[in-house]
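Thread amino acids onto this structure.
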C-alpha cells in the first residue's frame, strides 16, 4: 500500500472545510516589523514567528509539530528555513521575525533536509492511508506530498511501533499510537488549551510515547474535551464518528446549545449526516476550544426517543394520538379559547425556554401578550438567574454581566462565588485556569471543595468554605474589611458612583454586625481568612468577580448580586478589562430569554410593561392593545392552577416538572389544568401531564441566534432540515394565528429585524451583520456599531453606580434536630441540567446516576458506607440515592447533582425563593439521611418517588 497525498498539500475532498492554520499564535504587538520572505516584503507585528509571517503572506512552510493554537515547540524539524547572515537552518516556528531579515523557505538544501526528516517518520509509520480514517485530513500525509517524498531508503523492517495496541476506551475517540509521530501537540493541547494536564510523554528517544497515565484514556484524568484530537496532525487521535462514517465533506458554522459559554462550532457533515463538531477558532467565546458536551454529545438530536409528529389526547390518562400539524394547532387553539371564554382571559399563560433561540422566545412571548391577551409569560430563567437581572440593573443599570470572557486573561485576582466552571462552564474554566497558571490569585467562595480549590497546577489562595445560605454575610464581611481598613477606591467612588448612597452604605457596612468576627459565627469561615481574602482582592490589581447559581438560587439571591456589585464598585473594579461582575449563565440562552421580554413585567430590552411610551411602541408595531400590569410568574401560575383559576399553559422547551422546586406541587398544578401544551424534543416529565405535544427542533435544525453569558449574540444555523417539518417559531406563529391574532414571518431573519426595530440594545443587529462579523455583544447600536465587549467603561448605564445596603437575613430553611444536614446542589461536567439530552448520549459513560456526597463523619454517625443507597428526606419529600463519602463537602453539608429524573432531587427542595424575583432556593434544603430500606431503590420511577413523598 502506498502513502497517498495531494502534491498541493490539500485534500480534494476537504477543500473549503476547516480553518487555516498559521502554525503559531497571532502576536498582539503594536510594533510592525518588515522582512523579506522568498523575495517578497512582508510586514507583521513584532513577535510573530517566521512561520506565521510566511503563512500570512501566502507562502506556507511545511510543519508537523506546530499549530497556531499552541505555543511553538520546535521538535519536528520540518519547518527549517535559511536566513541571510545566520548559520544553519533554524526552525521557522520558534524563530521570531526581525526587521530587515531576509528569509528563504524553499531551497534545494531545505528540500533535502525536509525529505530526510519525513523519511524517518515514514519508516516507522503504517502505510495504510487508503484505509486510514484520517485520509484526507492528515498533515503527515499532506507534508509527505509537500516535501516530495517518493521512497524510504531505510526500508520498513527495522524496529518500529507498528504493533502498538489501540486504546478505544473513550466513547468518542480512539488512540492508535502506531500512527503517533510524538510531535507533542496532544500533550501541549491538554496542558495549554484545556489545562487538565492529563497526557505526558513517557520514555525517552525511540521509546518515547504519549501516555494518558493510568490504564487508558477512560480511566485517566482526561475530561474528553477533544482538544488533543483536534491538535493531532495524524490519525492517531481520531473521532470514532469519523472512523465509522468517513471524512466530512462540508461545514456549517453554528453555536453549541448546552451551557452559557456559547461556543462556536463548525458542524462537519458528510452529505446530510453530521460527522463531527469542530470548535471554531473564530468563535468569540471559545476561540477553538470546547468541552465534551458541545464537541461530542450531539447524538440526542437523532435519538430514537425524539417525537417527530404532533400528538393530542383528551385526558392525560389517554394514549397519545398522532395528528397533522393543522389538527394539533387547531385543537390547542380551540381549547385555549374555550378556557378563556369560561374562566377569563387571565386563565392561561406560558413559559419560554432558555434552550431556544431568541427568535423562538420572542415569538412565544409575543403570542402570549397578543393572542392570549395577557402578560402571563415567564421563563425558566426565573429559576436560575432572575436575581442577576434584578441585582445588576438596580446597581449598574443593566441586567447583564459586564465583561467578555477574554477579559479574565487580564485579571490579577479572581473572586469565584457559587460557581464551578470546570464542570458547568468548562471552556471558561479552561481560560480561568490558564490565567491562574500565569500567576493570577484565586479566592473561592463555596461550601464544597470544587476542583479549582486544588487541582493540577492550580491552587486557590483562599477557600472560604461557608455554610450554605450565608453568601450575603460573607460578601458583607469582605466589604467591611475593605471599608474599615481604608482599602476602598475613593477616586472611583467619587467620580463614578452615587455618593449619598455610598455614604449610607459605608455606615451600614462598617457596622460590627458585618465584621468578619461576627460573620465567622454565621458562616463558619474563620475571620482571619475573611480579612486576608478581602485584602487580597482589594490590593492585587484587577479584581474580577465570577459567580453562578450558588449565588442566585437563594432566598437572598438578589441581595447577594447587589452585594457583589457593591464590592466591585468599592474597589474600582468596573469599566475596564480584567475586572467586573460576571454571571456564568446556566443554559445556552438564559441571557437571551431575559433580553427578549420573557418576564411578565418586562417587554424586550427590560422595559416595564407599565411604561406607557414603551407599550405604545409595541402596540403600534403589533396592532394590539397590551395590558399595563405585569402578568403571573411561574409560581403564581402553578399556585393558581391548584386553586382552579389558572387552567391552561403553553410550556416551551422546558421540563418544569423536573427542574422546578417542590416537584410534588408542580405536578399537582399541572394535573389540575384543563390544557397543557408542551413543545419539546422528548416526552419529558412535564409532557406526561400534557394534552397536546408539539415536536420541537434540535439546535442542529434551528435558524436563529443565542445570546451567551457575555451578551454575545451568536448565530445558530440550520445544519439540517427540521425533522419535525417546521421551525418552532412557525408553530408558534400558527398557534397565535389560530387563536385569532395573525402572526407570520417568512424566515427567522425577519423576527430578528422586528426585535432590532423595537429593542434599543439590539438596534443594529441583523442576521446579515452577524454573518458578516461573526458575533456581537449587545448593546449594538449607533453608539456601539460593533457591539460592547466591556460595559460601563465611561459611566454606568444608570448614570451613577448605586451602592445598596445588603443586610444579611438568614434563610428560614435551617438545619434542625429533625433535618440536621444542609443539602446543596450543582452540576457535573458530562451531564447537563435535567439530562434530557446528555443522558441520551455516550456521556452517560461518566455519570450514570446522581449521587449524594456526604462527609465521612456524617456518614459514620448514620452507619452509611460509600456506595450505599440512602434515603434523603426533607420536610417536603423523600428520595433515594447512592452515597459517596467525600472530603469535598464539610461535615453538616451534603451535595448532589440533579441530572437524572429517577433520583428526583427536586422532590425534596423547598418552596422558599428569592425575595425579589422568586428564584427558588435550590441551594439550601435541610435534610436527614439514613440508609435506605431494602424496599427503597434509586431506580424507582419519579412517580414512585413522589408516591413516597
Ligand atoms: S495517519 Fe493515516 S492518513 Fe496519515 S499518514 Fe498515517 S496512515 Fe496516512
Ligand atoms: S480530550 Fe482533552 S482532557 Fe482528554 S487528553 Fe485530550 S486534551 Fe486532555
Ligand atoms: S463550554 Fe458550554 S457552550 Fe462550550 S462546548 Fe461546552 S457546553 Fe457547549
Ligand atoms: S513545525 Fe517547526 S519544528 Fe515542527
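Threaded sequence (949 positions):
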Amino acid at each position: 500500500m502506498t502513502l497517498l497525498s495531494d502534491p498541493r498539500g490539500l485534500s480534494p475532498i476537504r477543500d473549503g472545510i476547516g480553518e487555516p492554520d498559521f502554525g503559531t499564535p497571532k502576536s498582539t504587538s503594536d510594533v510592525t516589523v518588515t522582512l523579506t520572505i522568498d523575495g517578497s516584503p512582508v510586514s507583521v507585528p513584532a513577535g510573530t514567528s517566521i512561520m506565521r509571517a510566511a503563512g500570512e503572506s501566502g507562502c506556507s512552510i511545511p510543519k508537523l509539530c506546530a499549530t497556531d493554537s499552541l505555543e511553538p515547540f520546535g521538535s519536528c524539524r520540518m519547518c527549517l528555513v535559511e536566513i541571510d547572515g545566520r548559520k544553519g537552518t533554524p526552525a521557522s516556528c520558534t524563530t521570531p521575525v526581525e526587521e530587515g531579515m531576509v528569509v528563504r523557505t524553499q531551497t534545494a538544501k531545505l528540500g533535502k533536509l525536509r525529505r530526510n526528516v519525513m523519511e524517518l517518520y515514514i519508516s516507522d509509520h503504517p502505510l495504510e492511508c487508503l484505509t486510514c480514517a484520517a485520509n484526507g485530513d492528515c498533515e503527515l500525509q499532506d507534508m509527505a506530498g509537500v516535501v516530495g517524498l517518493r521512497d524510504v531508503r531505510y526500508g520498513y523492517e527495522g524496529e518500529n511501533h507498528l504493533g502498538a495496541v489501540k486504546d478505544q476506551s473513550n466513547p468518542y475517540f480512539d488512540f492508535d499510537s502506531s500512527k503517533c509521530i510524538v510531535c507533542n501537540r496532544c500533550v501541549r493541547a491538554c496542558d495549554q488549551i484545556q489545562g487538565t494536564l492529563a497526557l505526558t510523554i513517557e520514555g525517552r528517544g525511540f521509546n518515547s510515547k504519549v501516555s494518558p497515565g493510568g490504564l487508558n484514556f477512560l480511566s485517566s484524568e482526561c475530561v474528553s474535551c477533544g482538544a488533543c484530537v483536534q491538535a493531532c496532525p495524524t490519525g492517531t487521535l481520531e473521532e470514532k464518528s469519523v472512523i465509522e462514517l468517513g471524512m466530512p465533506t462540508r461545514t456549517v458554522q453554528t453555536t453549541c446549545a448546552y451551557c452559557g459559554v456559547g461556543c462556536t462550532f463548525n458542524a462537519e457533515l458528510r452529505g446530510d449526516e453530521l460527522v463531527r463538531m469542530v470548535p471554531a477558532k473564530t468563535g468569540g467565546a471559545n476561540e477553538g476550544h470546547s468541552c465534551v458536551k458541545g464537541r461530542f454529545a450531539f447524538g440526542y438530536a437523532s435519538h430514537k426517543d425524539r417525537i417527530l409528529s404532533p400528538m393530542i389526547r383528551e385526558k392525560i390518562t389517554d394514549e397519545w394520538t398522532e395528528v397533522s400539524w393543522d389538527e394539533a394547532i387547531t385543537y390547542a387553539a380551540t381549547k385555549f379559547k374555550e378556557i378563556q371564554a369560561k374562566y377569563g382571559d387571565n386563565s392561561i399563560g406560558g413559559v419560554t425556554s432558555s434552550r431556544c433561540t431568541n427568535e423562538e422566545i420572542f415569538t412565544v412571548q409575543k403570542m402570549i401578550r397578543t393572542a392570549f391577551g395577557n402578560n402571563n409569560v415567564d421563563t425558566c430563567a426565573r429559576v436560575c438567574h432572575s436575581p442577576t437581572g434584578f441585582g445588576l440593573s438596580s446597581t449598574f443599570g443593566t441586567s447583564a454581566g459586564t465583561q467578555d470572557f477574554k477579559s479574565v486573561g487580564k485579571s490579577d485576582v479572581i473572586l469565584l462565588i457559587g460557581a464551578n466552571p470546570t464542570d458547568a462552564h468548562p471552556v471558561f474554566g479552561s481560560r480561568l485556569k490558564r490565567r491562574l497558571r500565569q500567576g493570577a490569585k484565586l479566592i473561592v467562595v463555596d461550601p464544597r471543595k470544587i476542583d479549582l480549590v486544588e487541582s493540577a497546577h492550580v491552587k486557590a489562595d483562599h477557600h472560604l468554605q461557608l455554610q450554605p445560605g450565608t453568601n450575603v454575610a460573607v460578601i458583607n464581611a469582605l466589604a467591611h474589611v475593605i471599608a474599615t481598613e481604608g482599602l476602598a477606591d475613593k477616586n472611583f467612588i467619587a467620580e463614578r458612583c452615587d455618593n449619598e448612597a455610598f455614604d449610607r452604605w459605608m455606615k451600614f457596612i462598617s457596622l460590627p454586625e458585618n465584621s468578619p468576627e461576627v460573620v465567622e459565627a454565621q458562616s463558619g469561615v474563620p475571620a482571619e481568612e475573611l480579612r486576608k481574602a478581602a485584602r487580597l482582592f482589594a490590593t492585587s490589581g484587577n479584581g474580577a468577580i465570577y459567580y453562578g447559581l450558588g449565588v442566585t438560587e437563594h432566598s437572598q439571591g438578589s441581595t447577594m448580586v447587589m452585594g457583589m456589585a457593591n464590592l466591585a464598585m468599592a474597589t474600582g473594579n468596573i469599566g475596564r478589562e480584567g475586572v467586573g461582575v460576571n454571571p456564568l449563565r446556566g443554559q445556552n440562552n438564559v441571557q437571551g430569554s431575559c433580553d427578549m421580554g420573557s418576564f411578565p413585567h418586562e417587554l424586550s430590552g427590560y422595559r416595564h410593561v407599565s411604561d406607557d411610551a414603551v407599550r405604545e411602541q409595541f402596540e403600534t408595531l403589533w396592532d394590539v392593545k397590551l395590558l399595563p400590569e405585569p402578568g403571573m410568574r411561574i409560581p403564581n401560575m402553578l399556585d393558581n392552577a391548584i386553586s382552579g383559576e389558572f387552567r391552561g399553559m403553553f410550556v416551551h422547551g422546558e421540563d418544569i416538572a423536573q427542574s422546578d422546586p417542590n416537584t410534588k406541587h408542580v405536578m399537582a398544578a399541572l394535573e389540575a389544568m384543563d390544557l397543557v401544551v408542551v413543545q419539546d424534543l422528548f416526552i419529558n416529565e412535564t409532557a406526561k401531564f400534557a394534552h397536546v405535544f408539539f415536536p420541537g427542533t434540535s439546535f442542529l435544525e434551528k435558524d436563529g441566534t443565542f445570546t451567551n453569558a457575555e451578551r454575545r449574540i451568536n448565530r445558530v444555523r440550520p445544519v439540517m432540515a427540521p425533522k419535525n417539518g417546521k421551525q418552532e417559531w412557525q408553530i408558534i406563529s400558527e398557534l397565535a394565528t389560530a387563536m385569532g391574532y395573525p402572526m407570520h414571518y417568512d424566515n427567522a431573519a425577519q423576527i430578528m429585524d422586528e426585535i432590532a426595530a423595537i429593542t434599543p440594545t439590539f438596534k443594529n443587529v441583523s442576521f446579515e451583520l452577524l454573518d458578516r462579523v461573526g458575533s456581537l455583544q449587545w448593546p449594538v447600536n449607533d453608539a456601539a456599531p460593533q457591539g460592547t465587549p466591556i460595559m460601563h467603561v465611561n459611566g454606568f448605564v444608570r448614570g451613577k453606580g448605586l451602592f445598596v445596603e445588603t443586610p444579611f437575613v438568614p434563610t428560614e430553611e435551617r438545619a434542625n434536630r429533625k433535618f440536621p444536614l444542609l443539602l446543596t446542589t450543582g452540576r457535573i461536567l458530562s451531564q447537563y441540567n435535567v439530562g434530557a439530552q446528555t443522558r441520551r448520549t455516550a456521556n452517560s459513560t461518566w455519570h450514570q446516576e446522581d449521587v449524594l456526597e456526604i462527609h465521612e463523619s456524617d456518614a459514620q454517625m448514620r452507619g452509611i458506607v460509600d456506595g450505599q443507597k440512602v434515603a434523603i428526606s426533607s420536610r417536603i419529600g423523600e428520595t433515594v440515592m447512592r452515597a459517596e463519602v467525600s472530603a469535598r463537602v464539610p461535615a453538616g453539608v451534603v451535595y448532589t447533582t440533579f441530572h437524572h429524573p429517577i433520583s428526583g432531587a427536586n422532590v425534596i427542595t423547598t418552596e422558599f425563593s428569592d425575595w425579589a424575583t422568586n428564584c427558588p432556593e435550590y441551594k439550601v434544603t435541610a435534610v436527614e439521611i439514613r440508609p435506605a430500606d431494602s424496599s427503597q431503590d434509586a431506580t424507582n420511577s419519579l412517580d414512585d418517588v413522589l408516591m413516597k413523598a
